[in-house]
DNA sequence: AAGCATAACTTGTATATACAAGTTATGCAA
DNA sequence: TTGCATAACTTGTATATACAAGTTATGCTT
């Protein structure tokens, strides 16, 4: 048996997104749902917990599960959404330009950020993201070559995550991110359309696989006026 | 019985933070833990799930739960951490100056951001945050007065959340946040030490109670060089 | 010695039961 | 009519059991 609670989550999440369930309404009770999906109450509860975590519902003891209003502008930098998904909901025309894709051996900087041995084979990937013709995002990736043997420019232009998860069979699991504002460097201003700005929003992230190996380090620089980060956060008591 | 799994979570989280458990090590198995804490395996699993969500451990089917490396610099804007907690780990000297605390009736702008009726009583609160003597954060809060009857300057200087949760008995539950970079306005440059910057990082957040009522809207403006946002994010498949 | 099946672990999922705790509507009593 | 106890719902927590699925070490077979 594989993930009945996941299937229930998908069904209800889809219904909420399709606005079949209006915001403010109560979901059917856990007992009713367990009958409808022909499963136990605990399995339904697992699905509801996921929905709650992702901001679809709010559970109220004694009352039920309230459907929350969905963000009109779902701009997800949160979670681990990739640029491909991000771009889709953001802009009219999107273009990715691969500036560099090189196989290298880890120098000191790469060693540190990827926490690997010296001379470990890595991919160095530089990409320029154009929204509506303007080069406003500059991504620099470092990836463990061992995890991504046959990386090509075509893949880098499309989606690395799709390739890794579907072709290579890797499971990306979690990431640590940092968002800061920094002065633009000469190399940035050479390739980006700066639009008069001197600073850039820099998102640095370390991405880990299921087995906790750090396999990717990304530095993503955004022109300030094109940067937006939205988040749904639950209070941890 | 109240939250045995929470107690187990607290114990293990504390152990990891105190570095009694080293990063990379395996936790005792779920069966061992359930014996140690004299409880069932399911209860242990709930505690481990929380630990996993919050970035303390990574679960590996067939192997066990690996302790993850804790962030050396745990700068939490993520979640719903309040400024008071944030400041503690960030800077040497921290000072909050209350610029304004007024009881008002909702105008059109307040109506919209708080999603309330016209003329609903609200608190308008302006605070200036000084780190090491520099005024680098400017917070503007709007709160439903019905939820915070006796707000005072002293409370605003200390912690509103402590007051609301401990005195009034409210339960803050979740929030939607947005982070963008905007041009500083005249009112900003008047009160803040801009340090030559023209832009500000603006964090807007809508905070909700357990019963899903929106009760607070905050606009927090940060001088770019003093802003940092870190996050632990799990991939949702 | 090398390779492979297997046993003995680990976590993941699904089920059933019991009771606690919070909400709401019912209906009786004053 | 008003007020209050209560019954009938809701979700929250804890327990026990069973089996699936992944990992690792053991030991036998070749």
Q: Which terms summarize this structure?
A:
two-stranded antiparallel sheet, homodimer, 28% helix, 237 residues, six-stranded antiparallel sheet
* Overall geometric form of chain A: globular
Would you count the extended β strands of chain A for me?
9
Q: Show the largest interface.
A: A-B, 41 and 41 residues
Count of discrete alpha- or pi-helical segments spanning 4 or more residues of chain A: 8
Q: What proportion of the residues of chain A is helical, as a percent range? A: 25-40%
Query: What kind of oligomer do you see?
Result: homodimer
What can you tell me about this protein's structure?
2 copies of one chain form a homodimer. By secondary structure, the first copy, chain A, is an alpha+beta fold. Chain A is globular, with a radius of gyration of 21 Å. In chain A, a hairpin with a 4-residue loop joins strand 7 (199-209) and strand 8 (214-222). In chain A, helix 1 crosses helix 3 and helix 2 (30-36) packs across helix 3. Residues 72-81 of chain A have low confidence and may be disordered. In chain A, 28% of the residues lie in helices and 34% in strands. In chain A, the strands form 2 sheets. In chain A, strands 3-4-5-8-7-6 form a 6-stranded antiparallel β-sheet. A two-stranded antiparallel ribbon of chain A has the order 1-2. The first copy, chain A, contains 8 helices and 9 strands. The longest helix of chain A is centred in the first third of the chain and has 14 residues, at 4-17. The A-B interface holds A 24, 53-55, 58, 60, 66, 68, 71, 78-80, 172-181, 197, 199, 201, 208, 210-212, 224-225, 227-236 and B 24, 53-55, 58, 60, 66, 68, 71, 78-80, 172-181, 197, 199, 201, 208, 210-212, 224-225, 227-236. The structure holds a DNA duplex (30 and 30 nucleotides).
